[in-house]
Design brief:
The complex is a heterodimer of chains A (535) and B (187). Chain A has 18 helices and no strands. With 535 residues, chain A is mainly alpha-helical. The chains are: A mainly alpha (535), B alpha+beta (187).
Chain lengths: 535, 187
């Protein structure tokens, strides 16, 4: 393997000179590693922005009554917090991983469509500038929830709908371009000898996710277009007075929205399916069942959307259909959790920070999955609907699920990205602070929800005061803990222990056959068959 | 690999790429269209299954051959004003009992309290939703728009019958009208 690294290095020297310097390098870059870096930094900035909004929300909810912000501004914060975290933090972070790792994992020199890649990143900041600029306008930011149900976003809109719609359009175009790029890269640029069933599971999950994006982002684009014409051009898609139907909005939204939640979790499955085998020093248990489980989750995601709408007055057979289909998703998801545990079973485990985040992911994501199963049950959903139980559920799957997997992946590949090992002590602090505070933050929300505290309301009844205080303290602690990660990353970029080409003993995969930091151009010649067979 | 071979390989992969991109773009366009196609599909689906409490939008002829005297069904009437319409709008009677197959005539009262002429549209909805397909309107003010001059009042009629096929477990139907101001849209 050492010889391969040297060969690779000598070959790459011809190319290094193409790199531009300064800001132009980042503006004009078509290099998948640069674009991956841009995506990752962008998503982290957005994560901190959305997180700051969450801090204000938790400060307002620290005690009953209205203290800090006006109810309308509170609504704007919850809305934009959701939009930023979904479209600005989690999704671009995964696209960043895809850009950095997929070409290196399949032995390709770059993404298939490098110019489009540049374009799909650089329109993204503009989308969020448009969205965030509404805070400084007279109308205020969108205040109708990230789900932007009509008529809240049409008849009762505060005037921010047009900005919101255009921002979503740009985000959608960016996502679709990114997804097309991923699919084309995986289909056409795999190294000779790498069959589909030899691809790392990481690549598989992004492949399937990209298809989901291509299928549902256009539906979202159509939906916000209808919203735009309803609000400003007198159409009546969702207006009953003109023959439309507001409930139809929810159907179309969740037809997009449910696959969207899998878009945010399938790549997470891919990341932990990479890290857990590495630190268990075993092969991933049940590789092919993982591929089929991921595919079936993706397919099932298209026929469960109405479980978000049990309380809209659906007939009984509709509720039963969507309830059973939703519960069916627990089967492939259970297969995955089983496989991760089976991978660790009798492995020779070590607990580096990526592994800590991965194990936390498996346990806490499963808790989030179980509360999802509770929400899937129609009769009890009538109690849980629109309460903090829902908030607890989707934060368990998105924060301790998706976000923790992103941290696992970031720590795992930081040595490859920067050429330095991260500061181990600080990273462990980051993990343990995050783990404790995130549970203090989200676990009591379950009980608040069961006791009937509604979501998206800036005030609450007195009996919820104690739990909310603890939740807020957990929130502030979790928010501050994320700054440790920022420090770790900056320190890691600036220096630190030199990372070898393969810093993890149990790691497999083509990305570890190139030097650390990964040279600007990798796999200009395809990897050797031996390396591919080693995966 | 010599240079020509490499160029050829690069060319091939570029052709492959553009083919794949075209196919994927087609999927994107198709799904964008599908988003809009969901609108008529939704209506058709609701019409066929009677979901969502939507009742017939145009008059139907009376087709029942028998009146099922053994059953009585209660039909309740509810009215609601959408935001921003200053009308009085209420049923003359709040509920009525009917035998399935029997034609009934009821009236609703409306008055335009505004100081200007307005046009309104009443949109009906039946609960439970599954009963909507068994509730037939022979004549209804909701089939047309309601123009009322300032301070004008009117009694509007609804003629309906309940289908004899109405499922056994449904004994009460609620017909709800929401009144919308469509003055701007129709002028």
């Amino acid at each position: 393997m050492t010889t391969d690294v040297i060969e690779q290095d000598s070959h790459d020297e011809h190319h290094v000179e193409h790199k531009m310097t300064g800001i132009k390098r980042w503006l004009y870059t078509t290099n998948h590693k640069d674009i991956g870096t841009l995506y990752l930094w962008f998503s982290f900035i957005m994560f901190l922005t959305g997180g700051a909004m969450a801090m204000v929300i938790r400060a307002e909810l620290f005690q009953p009554g209205l203290q800090l912000v006006e109810p309308d501004f509170f609504n704007q914060l919850t809305t934009v917090h959701g939009l930023i975290m979904v479209f600005g933090a989690i999704m671009p972070a995964f696209t960043g991983f895809a850009n950095w790792m997929i070409p290196m994992m399949i032995g390709a020199p770059d993404m298939a469509l490098p110019r489009m890649n540049n374009w799909s990143f650089w329109i993204l900041p503009f989308a969020f500038i448009i969205l965030l600029s509404t805070f400084f306008m007279d109308s205020g930011a969108p205040n109708f929830g990230w789900t932007f149900y009509a008529p809240l976003s049409t008849t009762y809109s505060n005037g921010s709908t047009a900005f919101f719609v255009f921002a979503i359009h740009i985000m959608g175009i960016s996502s679709i371009m990114g997804a097309i790029n991923i699919v084309v890269t995986i289909m056409n640029l795999r190294a000779p000898g790498m069959t589909y069933m030899k691809m790392p599971l990481f690549v598989w999950t992004f492949f399937i996710t990209a298809y989901l994006l291509i299928a549902v982002m256009p539906v979202l684009a159509g939906l916000v277009t209808m919203l735009l014409t309803d609000t400003y051009f007198g159409t009546s898609f969702f207006n009953a007075a003109g023959g439309g139907d507001p409930v139809m909005f929810q159907h179309i939204f969740w037809f997009f929205g449910h696959p969207e939640v899998y878009i945010m979790i399938l790549p997470a499955f891919g990341i932990v399916s990479t890290t857990i085998p590495t630190f268990s020093r075993k092969r991933l248990f049940g590789y092919s069942s993982m591929v089929y489980a991921t595919s079936s989750i993706a397919l099932l995601s298209f026929i469960v959307w109405a479980h978000h709408m049990f309380t809209t007055g659906m007939p009984l057979f509709g509720e039963l259909f969507f309830m059973y289909c939703t519960m069916l998703i627990a089967v492939p998801t259970g297969v995955k959790v089983f496989n991760w545990v089976a991978t660790m079973w009798r492995g020779s485990l070590s607990f580096e920070t990526p592994m800590l985040f991965s194990i936390a992911f498996v346990i806490l994501f499963t808790i989030g999955g179980f509360s999802g199963l509770m929400l899937a049950m129609t009769p009890v959903d009538f109690q849980y609907h629109d309460t903090y139980f829902v908030v607890a559920h989707f934060h368990y799957v998105l924060v301790t699920g998706s976000l923790f997997s992103i941290y696992a992946g970031a720590y795992y590949w930081l040595p490859k990205w920067t050429g330095h090992m991260y500061n181990d002590t600080l990273s462990k602090w980051h993990f343990w602070c995050s783990l404790i505070s995130v549970n203090l933050l989200f676990f009591p929300m379950h009980f608040l929800g069961l006791a009937g505290m509604p979501r998206r309301i800036p005030d609450y009844a007195l009996q919820f005061a104690d739990f909310n205080k603890w939740v807020s303290i957990g929130g502030f602690a979790f928010g501050l803990s994320q700054l440790i990660f920022l420090v770790v990353v900056i320190k890691c970029i600036r220096g630190g222990e030199k990372a070898p080409a393969k810093p993890w003993e149990g790691a497999v995969g083509l990305e570890w056959t190139v030097a650390s930091p990964a040279p600007y151009h990798t796999f200009s010649t395809p990897p050797s068959q031996k390396d591919i067979d080693n995966i | 690999m010599n240079d020509t071979e490499q160029n050829q390989a690069e060319l091939n992969s570029r052709n492959n790429n553009s083919k794949t991109v075209k196919k994927l773009l087609l999927v994107v366009l198709a799904m964008f269209g599908f988003g809009f196609a969901l609108v008529p599909l939704y209506d058709v689906f609701c019409d066929i299954t009677g979901l969502n409490g939507k009742t017939n939008k145009t008059a139907v002829a009376y087709t029942a051959t028998t009146i099922d005297k053994s059953r009585t069904v209660t039909v309740q009437f509810i009215t609601r004003n959408a935001q921003g319409i200053p009308w009085i709008f209420e049923p003359i009677i709040n509920e009525i009992t009917v035998h399935p197959g029997e034609i009934k005539l009821v009236s609703f009262y409306a008055k335009n309290k505004a100081s200007y002429d307005m046009i309104a549209q009443a949109v009906p909805s039946v609960s439970p939703g599954l009963a909507a397909n068994y509730f037939h309107k022979i004549e209804c003010f909701c089939f047309t728009q309601q123009p009322l001059k300032a301070a004008e009042e009117v009694e509007m009629t609804l003629q309906f019958y309940v289908d004899v096929e109405l499922p056994e477990d449904i004994n009460t139907l609620t017909l709800s009208y929401t009144l919308y101001d469509i003055t701007e849209k129709s002028s």
